[in-house]
Design brief:
Largest sheet: none
Mean pLDDT: 93
Strand content: under 5%
Order of helices and strands: HHHH
Low-confidence stretches: none
Number of helices: 4
């Protein structure tokens, strides 16, 4: 789970700095980052389900980690679903930032 999330963040960074052309490295980095983010979210739900509890509120670090990780993954899915349209950068950036904050909360 941890290394899938870190791998997703590394690929997000590579997608952010790579040329933004169709059929370029940007596209492959973004799709791969989204796949790793989805795998991280899925394995997190499987292995850390007991850490998530709504009764602890949104300020609980485990709850924030889950919510931001899920938001990040969904935003990345939205970004690659919209690509190559011009409006896909916003969800992509939101996804990367949300995933980054989700990882930082747990470290």
């Amino acid at each position: 789970h941890q290394y899938l999330g870190l791998g997703a963040l590394a690929l997000v960074a590579l997608a952010a700095v790579s040329p933004k052309e169709e059929d370029s490295a940007h596209e492959y980095f973004a799709v791969s980052a989204t796949a790793l983010a989805a795998a991280a979210a899925t394995t997190g739900l499987i292995y850390h389900w007991e850490d998530f509890d709504f009764s602890d509120g949104f300020t609980d670090p485990d709850n924030l980690h889950v919510l931001l990780g899920a938001l990040g993954t969904l935003a990345m899915v939205a970004a690659i679903s919209e690509a190559p349209e011009a409006g896909h950068a916003g969800p992509g950036i939101l996804g990367g930032v949300a995933m980054g904050v989700a990882v930082k909360i747990t470290w």
